[in-house]
Amino acid sequence: MPLTILSDSDIRSLLLSLTRDDISSLQHNLAEALHDYSTGTQETTVGCSANQPHRIAVPAANNQHTLFMPASTSTSRGIKIVTLSRAPKPSLEPSMSKLGLESPRSSSRSSSPAPRSPSTASPRSSLPSISQIPSNASNASANPSLTSSQTTTPRGSLTLLTGKGSPYAFIAAEELTAFRTALAATMLMNRRSHLHSITVFGAGKQAEWHIRLALMLRGNDIHHIDIINRSFSRAKALMTAFYSSPEWESLRNAVPKVSFSIVSSEYGEYQRLLKEHVRKADAIFLCTPSTSPLFPHEYLTSTEGRKKGRFISAIGSYRPHMLELHPEVLRQAVAPEHKHHHHRHADRGGVIVVDSLESSLKEAGEVIQAGITAEHLVEVGELLMVKKAAMKEIELGSGPGEIGLRDWLFKGNVIYKSVGIGLMDICVGEDLVALAMERGFGTAVDGW
Questions:
Q1: How far is residue 186's CA from residue 312's CA, in Å, rounded to a whole number?
Q2: How confident is the model at residue 121 (pLDDT cuts 50, 70, 90)?
Q3: Strands of 155-161's sheet, edge to edge?
Q4: Looking at the DSSP assignment, which residues form a beta bridge with residue 283?
Q5: Taking a C-beta distance cutoff of 8 angstroms, is the pair 352, 380 a contact?
Q6: Which one, of 448, 446, 443, lies nearest residue 9 by Cα?
């Protein structure tokens, strides 16, 4: 068979051509692969967790490291090799100043007016007017993270082999990694009963694909998307692309009611706006390589914060010292429910949803620093199939179904923590290769 080579631009062009049905099909296949990963055995299932080697991190020059991520499914073997910068070690007690996102001293500050509050993009405008608010506070240091000259964007490749070991695809990893991460996260988001407002931390590729897939899957329900980012210019570029780039045109026309807003620490009222956008969100996407919490836990753990159910996807941190979500949020999510309380609180599931139990206990900073144990973690592959069975039981009228599970997944507080596993790359990669061959993307090398 020919060797298919897909550059990063090939992958992006292919992904931008996908329809909602394509996305649903990719999610279905990924869910099946994750189910095999969570429930299969070595004797019966090639893609089970016991057959997946641990990834290896090798130090590289310039404060970087290279990850080697081998994996296998029932139809393919492969390895993803990527290099990315390492996030700095955090301080033990992040102060309130570190909960703000670092503000670059951009040249646009001097040329922009300073209104009293940040503008929100109107869905009727072709290009929103955006202004910055200079901060009246002192220029405090940001939460420890990567500087603008560094990036945790994975640069590298994915190599796919047949079951007999013959290489059949070589794929650039940057766009693929961002897409497959968002693809997995939005599987749970897609079943939420209420998805009016989404708050996104970050403005890179991960944030872009979370936004794009959310709009493709639930665009008719979503009215507001709030982007919170330390770099105003990057957030502005992402929002401007939605309103003017040809890459977003079809999606832009399909969701005319959605409006965007931007918040950065350059805003004088940053802390008030941060609290407002976190509290009002039905879904929160955390897509930054942060090493301290992006917002105070009280925004979600206080009586007021607990009145509303939210879906939270935390995918930006992937090492024990990194975290985006305050550990107290996770501790409260798994704490036993009190039988009697005087306030209405959203349902808690008593567990944190993860992509890999073993990897999360070793690498997920939020899980480790919160002291969460295996009994309070459930893999998304196992959960998706339990949900599927419960929904079928209800539809057939053959039993009460897991009503509590359904209510929690649809309306409760659901936290999904992902550190990324190679199986996702193999599963999504082989599907994209099939689509690329069918639709004429990439380069085919015959006689390989």
A1: 10
A2: very low
A3: 56-60, 64-72, 77-85, 155-161, 167-172, 3-6, 443-445
A4: 198, 311
A5: no
A6: 443
Read off the amino acid at residue 424. M
> Could you count the other beta carbons within 10 Å of the beta carbon of residue 38?
21
Global pTM value: 0.84
Say which residue the tokens 């917002």 belong to: 295
CA distances from 447 to 64, 221, 443 (A): 37, 49, 13
Q: Find the helix or strand (DSSP H, E) in which 181 lies.
A: helix 174-189
Q: What is the DSSP letter of 246?
A: G
Alpha carbons within 13 A on the beta-carbon side of 141: 10
Beta-bridge mates of residue 348: 413
126 pLDDT more than 70? no
Backbone CA torsion sign across 318, 319, 320, 323: negative
Q: How far apart are CA 133 and CA 112, in angstroms?
A: 9
- What's the pLDDT tens digit per position in 45-63? 999 999 999 899 899 888 8
Using left for φ > 0, alpha for ψ between -120 and 50, and beta otherwise, residue 262 falls in beta
Residues 6+ apart with CB under 8 A from 230: 101, 102, 103, 104, 142, 145, 264, 265
Q: Widest CA span of the chain, in angstroms?
A: 71
**Arithmetic mean of pLDDT, 111-139:** 38
